[in-house]
């Protein structure tokens, strides 16, 4: 299965879930974006490394990196390989002495390690097709997502207002989706995307 490379665009604060953040990933050669809701601790771990900040003592992900470096373990890549019932699954591809090993990990932890090892992040077409959001050029030009500064399992958004979306027509949902993207409200956009996907399957 062909892998699609993803880049980290940034993190935005969740409008509805206290302490949660939307991690925004973008396909390297395309317009689709993959928003993933993560917890505050994981968001902080990613943001600290992206901002080149050095905590006084190693965080958990820094400890893992130091441990791996000490024993000459290399993190070659991170793959977001599955999406089941709104939950993203990831794995670490590690190597040592020409031996390659796959390690299961939460997506947020895997990405926190990817930024520390400066390794690529990949996913597959079926995940982007199912959970990706296509950005219009006009919306992308005006975008301004800033990484969260230092201050759950990784899931796609579990909509609290599912019932509201279920009552809306397909045209209304598409219009709401575009408005959410224009406002850079990726959390709401991912909820609408999930409802549209449910309707396609039914």
Give a structural overview.
- With 202 residues, the protein is an alpha+beta fold.
- Helix content is 39%, strand content 30%.
- Strands 6-5-4-7-1-2-3-8 form an eight-stranded mixed beta sheet.
- Helix 7 (170-182) packs antiparallel against helix 8 (186-201).
- The chain is globular, with a radius of gyration of 17 Å.
- The protein starts with a strand and ends with a helix.
- Residues 138-162 have low confidence and may be disordered.
Low-confidence stretches: 138-162
Give the neighbour order of strands across the main sheet. Answer: 6-5-4-7-1-2-3-8
What is the tally of beta strands?
8
Rounded average pLDDT: 82
Helix content: 25-40%
Given helix and strand content, the structural type is alpha+beta
Main beta sheet: strand number and arrangement?
8 strands, mixed
Q: How many helix segments?
A: 8
Walk me through the topology.
Elements: E1 3-13, E2 20-27, E3 32-39, H1 40-50, H2 60-70, E4 74-84, E5 87-96, E6 99-105, H3 107-117, E7 121-124, H4 125-131, E8 133-134, H5 137-141, H6 162-166, H7 170-182, H8 186-201
Parallel strand pairs: 4-7
Antiparallel strand pairs: 1-2, 1-7, 2-3, 3-8, 4-5, 5-6
């Amino acid at each position: 299965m062909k892998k699609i490379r993803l880049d980290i665009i940034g993190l935005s604060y969740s409008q509805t879930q206290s302490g949660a953040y939307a991690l925004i990933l973008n396909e390297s050669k395309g317009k689709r974006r993959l928003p993933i809701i993560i917890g505050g601790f994981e968001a902080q771990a990613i943001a600290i490394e992206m901002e080149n900040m050095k905590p006084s003592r190693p965080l958990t992900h820094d400890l893992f990196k130091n441990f791996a470096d000490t024993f000459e373990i290399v993190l070659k890549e991170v793959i977001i390989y599955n999406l089941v019932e709104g939950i993203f699954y990831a794995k670490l591809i590690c190597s040592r002495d020409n031996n390659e090993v796959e390690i299961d990990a939460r997506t947020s932890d895997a990405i926190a390690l990817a930024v520390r090892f400066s390794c690529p992040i990949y996913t597959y077409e079926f995940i982007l097709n199912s959970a990706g959001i296509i950005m219009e050029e006009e919306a992308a030009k005006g975008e301004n997502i800033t990484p969260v500064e230092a201050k759950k399992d990784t899931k796609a958004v579990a909509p609290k207002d599912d019932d509201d979306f279920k009552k809306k027509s397909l045209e209304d949902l598409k219009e709401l989706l575009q408005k959410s993207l224009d406002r850079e409200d990726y959390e709401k956009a991912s909820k609408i995307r999930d409802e549209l996907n449910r309707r396609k399957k039914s």
